[in-house]
Specification:
Length: 355
């Protein structure tokens, strides 16, 4: 069945899986064979890998496209890969890759997205657009619109979380409210969640996948590798085909009618609120970690914890920010007092520790 027809099926969840990177002919073929019986609809594998630092594994390039096509011929599974420029698109079309996706690092660049769009103009090729690295809904929508106005194939979105500075629970913060806002802005758009890139580690993948399903997302893209520990990229966030199957069987899939993401109602507002509260708590924790660091600094430099001048300044500036934002003065005063109290407590804890 051509990929376009597979994408037009109403199957939910629609499952995309396969290795982060195509590493060898054998790895691609073995993974495809293992995934065929696990309920996967579309196989993924990166061929050109955008790596954060140089000298990392950057993918096998064009020759790996042949391995994907061979795997497709052997198993019947349609295949998809990431494209970052017009040459990538042309090579994929030339080889017969079924579906393309635009990666998070590419979605941030309107020039690159437009170039990719032009390379698909008038063709019947399905394209998925991952969210940009940073939390910018308009940029994501803009990239989707650029592709939609060029290809004749279906265009879907992939939510893979947003990059944040510092150490956090997730590799990429899910910020579910942005995926919900996208769905509200484009109600006919199919949105897939990529729990691997959100979680960054295997044990967090199931809860992220379940949350995506609870939000009514159309499907999941989960990285899988025949031998995850040995993967050349993203080894910690890939599942073995058996673990993938176990995860898929464990998911609770609720009826679409009742799901919040498709309705502009109280549930969807509450879901957005949940996500924001989660982030507020994460930010408060980051603030307390800084207080600890300050505590250690004061200990090492024999300073006192309470520095009245600094605290007065904090109270004044935050009070003004809150006022400008329209928050009640009493609320913000209570909040600041509590934060200050907790800050002193954790600084104290650090100061009483031995160097
Ligand atoms: C990937 O899917 O392997 C990938 C590089 O994803 P992202 O663009 O979401 O980082
Ligand atoms: Mn990856």
């Amino acid at each position: 069945m051509p990929a376009k027809e597979i994408l037009s099926e109403t199957t939910r969840p629609f499952i995309i899986s396969g290795p982060c990177s195509a590493e060898s002919q054998t790895q691609v073929l073995q993974t495809a064979q293992a995934l065929r019986e696990k309920g996967v609809h579309l196989m993924r594998a990166g061929v050109w890998k955008p790596r954060t630092r140089p000298n990392s594994f950057e993918g096998r390039g064009i020759e790996a496209l042949d391995w994907l096509i061979e795997a497709k011929q052997a198993t019947g599974l349609p295949v998809c890969t990431e494209v970052a420029n017009a040459q990538h698109v042309e090579a994929c079309l030339d080889k017969g890759i079924d579906v393309l996706w635009v990666g998070a690092r590419t979605t941030v660049s309107p020039f690159a997205v437009q170039e990719i769009a032009e390379a698909t103009r008038g063709l019947d090729i399905p394209v998925f657009v991952k969210n940009p690295m940073h939390a910018d809904l308009s940029l994501w929508i803009g990239a989707i619109e650029r592709i939609q106005s060029a290809t004749k194939g279906p265009v879907w979105a992939i939510h893979r979380g947003f990059s944040r500075y510092g150490k956090t629970e997730f590799r990429n913060a899910p910020m579910w409210e942005i995926a919900i806002a996208l769905q509200m802005a484009m109600p006919n758009l199919k949105v897939i969640c990529d729990p691997s890139h959100i979680a960054g580690k295997r044990d967090l993948i199931p809860s992220v996948a379940q949350k995506a399903m609870d939000l009514g997302m159309h499907g999941l893209m989960i990285e899988s590798h025949i031998d995850p520990e040995l993967a050349l990229s993203d080894a910690n966030q890939q599942l073995s085909p058996d673990a993938l199957s176990e995860l898929l069987n464990s998911l609770t899939i609720r009826n679409l009618q009742t799901e919040a993401i498709h309705t502009e109602n109280l549930d969807s507002l509450r879901l957005q609120m949940d996500s924001i509260d989660e982030q507020v708590i994460e930010l408060l924790n980051a603030r307390m970690q800084l207080a600890r660091e300050i505590g250690r600094y004061k200990r090492d430099h024999s300073m006192t914890i309470l520095q009245m001048k600094r605290w007065k300044e904090v109270f004044k500036t935050r009070g003004q920010w809150a006022k400008d934002a329209g928050l009640g003065p009493e609320f913000i005063a209570t909040y600041l007092e509590q934060v200050h109290k907790e800050s002193i407590r954790v600084q104290n804890e650090e100061m009483s520790k031995k160097k």
